Amino acid sequence: MNDVMGIINLSESEEQIKDLTLGRSLGALHIFGRYRIIDFQLSNMVNSGLSNVAIFTYGKSHSIMLHVGSGKHWGLDRKRDGLYIFYPEVNSEDNIRRLGDLENYRNHLDYLQNSTQKYVLLSRSYMLCNIDYKDVVQHHRNSGSDVTIVYKTIEKSYDRFPNCDTLSLDDQNRVIGIGKNLGKEERYNVSMEMYVMKRERLIKIIESAIQRGDARFLKEAIFQRLPELKVSAYRFNGYLSCIQTINNYFETNMELLNTQLCEELFNKHGPIYTKVMDAPSTYYSEDSYVSNSLVANGCIIEGKVENSIIHRDVRIKKGAVVRNSILLPYVTVSEATNLNYVILDKHATITPRKMLFGDQSNPFVIKKNMVL
Amino acid sequence: MNDVMGIINLSESEEQIKDLTLGRSLGALHIFGRYRIIDFQLSNMVNSGLSNVAIFTYGKSHSIMLHVGSGKHWGLDRKRDGLYIFYPEVNSEDNIRRLGDLENYRNHLDYLQNSTQKYVLLSRSYMLCNIDYKDVVQHHRNSGSDVTIVYKTIEKSYDRFPNCDTLSLDDQNRVIGIGKNLGKEERYNVSMEMYVMKRERLIKIIESAIQRGDARFLKEAIFQRLPELKVSAYRFNGYLSCIQTINNYFETNMELLNTQLCEELFNKHGPIYTKVMDAPSTYYSEDSYVSNSLVANGCIIEGKVENSIIHRDVRIKKGAVVRNSILLPYVTVSEATNLNYVILDKHATITPRKMLFGDQSNPFVIKKNMVL
Amino acid sequence: MKMQKKEIVAMILAGGQGSRLREITDKIAKPAVPFGGKFRIIDFTLSNCSNSEIDTVGILTQYQPLELNSHIGIGSSWDLDRNFGGVKILPPYFDKEGGRFYMGTANAIFENMNFIDAYNPNYVLILSGDHIYKMDYQKMLDTHKEKNADLTISVIEVPWDEASRFGLLSADETDMIYEFQEKPDEPKSNLASMGIYIFSWPVLRACLIEDHYSEDSSSDFGKDIIPKMVEGHHKVYAYRFSGYWRDVGTVESLWESNMDLLGLDNELNLHDKSWRNYSVNPISPPQYISPFGRVEGSIVNEGCVIEGHVIKSVISTDVHVGRNSVVQNTIVMPNTNIEDDVQIDYAIILSDITVKSGTVVKGTRDHIAVYPSEGGENHE
Amino acid sequence: MKMQKKEIVAMILAGGQGSRLREITDKIAKPAVPFGGKFRIIDFTLSNCSNSEIDTVGILTQYQPLELNSHIGIGSSWDLDRNFGGVKILPPYFDKEGGRFYMGTANAIFENMNFIDAYNPNYVLILSGDHIYKMDYQKMLDTHKEKNADLTISVIEVPWDEASRFGLLSADETDMIYEFQEKPDEPKSNLASMGIYIFSWPVLRACLIEDHYSEDSSSDFGKDIIPKMVEGHHKVYAYRFSGYWRDVGTVESLWESNMDLLGLDNELNLHDKSWRNYSVNPISPPQYISPFGRVEGSIVNEGCVIEGHVIKSVISTDVHVGRNSVVQNTIVMPNTNIEDDVQIDYAIILSDITVKSGTVVKGTRDHIAVYPSEGGENHE
User: Fold this and answer.
1) What is the C-alpha to C-alpha distance for residues A223 and A208, in angstroms, rounded to an integer?
2) Distance of residue D223 Cα from the nearest chain C Cα, in angstroms
3) Which domains does chain A have, with CATH numbers?
4) FRET pair for D248, CA 20 to 30 Å: which of B167, C256, C295, D272?
């Protein structure tokens, strides 16, 4: 796989999850107790043998840089290739929305030109899965296609992939149309927004789109060239979740309380790496009661925790009750509080004797650093 | 010195050197055959024992990031502290000129607040010297001042520090006024734009300037508070050059052909570290003639070179004559060319039989990637 | 090119066989024994070095210790992956006559003089690899410099009735040491040496060479070098330390020291973010407590799945506790699978094993069971 | 936590004493001998590994080689500073009876089976630490896999009249090897083994164990393991290499191989940016050629100051050549100061010395002078 380079494109729509992406990009959002969303794509790429990986950021990139750093934790701190983080020349989100992500690719075209790999694998951070890209690339090579798009066939559950791209396929698994999921179909093929093509092809698509000015987003440019290209589809059958809304973020976390899914997502084609934080083991006091929960290291738990995801360095004091909730790092929950269906962002503090009840279909989000 | 943190502020005026800073920030400009300008400040800080160093960038920051990376080559890839690179939220140079650098400090105030060091050392990249900050900080501690500014007393030679800040001192070496060098004085104290103060003091200055809105640049804010503060001056007596104009860049390079200055700048208080590039030794053919020149590794020299600075991986072919010139990395000079007082930027190529003559007081700059 | 140097180099004596740790040290060196859920014993000393900004550390071992080697790696877990300096494991020196073992603690340093000289240090810090404590060695070095000492020994007050188990120091009001007794029957002091020494390197270097050529020496710091320096005209000072400090040389002391972590206000306070205790971080998901699981007064590390009942215990990385199993007053070492219906009390369960369903392991407070043990007397 | 593994592990045999290199290897191990201005001999093999994306490398040495140790450091110069994998120096193994030397090349691998097993590899690549060449081992591995071989040996065609100095292989049209002759008087083939082997690890592992318990074996790859595999029913294939390849075992071959670099079209082409030869980069300013200096047909490295006349020579890092000195047909090793008025021809000047003003060192093409030499016969 040393002839494949990877690109993680972070120009993701954050409209429906923006309460959790105020000071960070979506890729840097905490998930499952000890990870960030981008860890999954980085690990998938590294586990598939890629050693040249670029992250194209769009605003709030400091959060990504602090987390990913030199790529050391993913084994990407290399002399040749390794990890690259690219910033748009103009770093404000608004401008990106106006200019599209093509501008960022154009500004860093020399990186694509100077890379030595034959193929490029494009992906997003928010399509969460444990995938073996070796198999995807092999499929691409065998198919003789210009572009391969990874998809998953979904039955019902519109809510889990709202507004995602959908693929229409012919009986040869060739892509004949790309649409949007509006929830009108019982069964549809959701695009996982992972594209494999030759590096030269990608450069041509970017150059021609900029030349003609017919697209602002790379995805748009690819879709417009659908008639000219042979585009085939690769079917993925594993666990997939798209973290694009608060509800999906919440449901996905809760789903992982299923140990089988846990095993698949954290191990199937290789382990998920993350930045290590050197927190000590978690302490459960004699008065604590914890059930059906994922708990990260560094916590001190004296209260009651049920069906919850507890991130690193959280403190839950005596008499507190936390149910069906997600607590991000450094959260403090004081004595005699009662939380249900709540998402507490980093460093939030709940003072004693508070009751916060959200709803399963609409969890209550407490923003970063808030003291309530 | 583990109670001192360092900040390198790259909001430097590039107006008079802009032909060499088109795709890079001034700190990333190549100098002396194998260095970049920022190497000197980074090495000074590391050699003085600082282990928490931040670089505040302003546009074209990719060049800095590619060069500095995780800070590994300066021993700054640490778990605690280490190297931080900060980008302004809006990354265009124009906006910086309008908004000033205070905005960038404000956006990253939490970094200053969360650092644990008692003192902060502010500096620029373009004030080139080999300085022992241990002595500066000791002087600051002993003086009981709020702020210490490093200066050098200059006799004549206005041209070498045009428009630089100048300090008026009383007989106790206390700063009583700060002005601009307009070349009207025979002898003046040029500010090296290195400031030492308590971290808390810096945070207060930033906060109050933003609160009052009375300054756009940090330097401005400090100067405005001169009456309220005890500001003393530390006199530096070593070699100093300010790389703010093409002419100064040229003269400074040429000055280093003096081996004594070379020894001082590269070794006096510790070695100058840079990113290593793994170029092999330079080959001098039997027909080559090289005299009074600094040559980096990776070159193949078959022509004649006099009084010149040759950077890494340069190729000078048979019959080429290069005099009084600076060749940046990957430059190719073809057969039977004749160059005098020329600066060739990275990847420039001179085709056979060209003659390019600049003037000592106005060297001819050939831009990056140009083929002439 | 100027010669680079380091102000101080730390040398960790980690060669003890640890035979009083019974089966625990059968396959791993004592410094590599798991501790406190996510650490190994040597992590405390290495983290102290890292947090004290001492970045050049030699670890002196007797064997080529595979597990210790792979634990240390290139030292990046402790921020000790440096090109000049960093952490290095130093097995006994080979010369043209073949290898040889270190004779005593001082001999181990003598044999590695080249390693130390390569950094041209002013000071050498001698440490032991099997103590559990947090200490800022820079402060000790500051005292050493202030007093212009030749040797500074870190000391701790111990109860008088335990004093005779230690090397004891008598110091005057300036903390200058005038007498040293190695495990005396009748203690004259209750200031115990913690086995932490800062020497000025030129002084130690000279003493080591002298010791090497003296015939009746056992080349040990406690028995030879230090008493000689105290008796001679060297400036030897005490540096008083107070706080948590334990030697975990026996199964029972290892067990107790682990149990000391089970409390909110334990003296070691591993949750202190300004003094992180570093170790190799596992690549494992968070711990999962199932609907059947129950954890009380215990610490649990990443990668664990708890479906049984855990009481007053220390559960290391990647341990599984099955349904209806009860684990109490016990240390479970990493990557061990405790199946359903297992009963464990007052025990240390070794790493990488499966405890079969139905197993009962019972120790007592005074005799902690080690499982599996060679004799097999502890389980039915 | 899943067991991590590596597809291939490289083992570099770097234990040779190098006595034919005379005084050059008095103080440094052969793999650490400077080469080509900025390299050391072992850099070529390590760079080959790094450029072939083989990131797990063991270096087998006989002594605890200080200079090699400090050259390798944590391996970051070759991008081999990895937490899982990376480069590791493996001195002979210590067990409870003390240390022992490796018996033969195969025994050295046998003794380090634990190291290899820890990575659970499919293949093991055996290399020599004292050859100068550039080679993509991945291509050799591809061939090994395609042919489903047990052992693949890299071979190079040598002139028939030199063939008897090598281990020679006879192969059929499919490159299957049917005969192996170790340095025969009457060569039947001119395909010489380059001492580069890829073994399928389970096969080699079995062979090593068998060899260990056979009494009449000298435990050497060339003498025992390979002939036995060729004779037995193992699939042994040749992999044909063409290009620059030199064994630098003698002073003269070391000298010649250095001189091979002095030309624009030398086969080794170190200026190739797609295959960088890595080494530790010195922290030194660029080279300076003074107005009195003159350099012809030579290579010069960073940190040098040339005030004299350098002709057809290789000048390593941080060398000073004084005024009126003439250095020709010579290798000057790092950090050496050649004062004014020195005459040197056909010589190798060792590192870290001063060549006093007025010194004359003269060798010949057939007998390269080494300075300083113990006999002192080479200089006046």
Assistant:
1) 13
2) 25
3) 4-267 (3.90.550.10), 283-366 (2.160.10.10)
4) D272
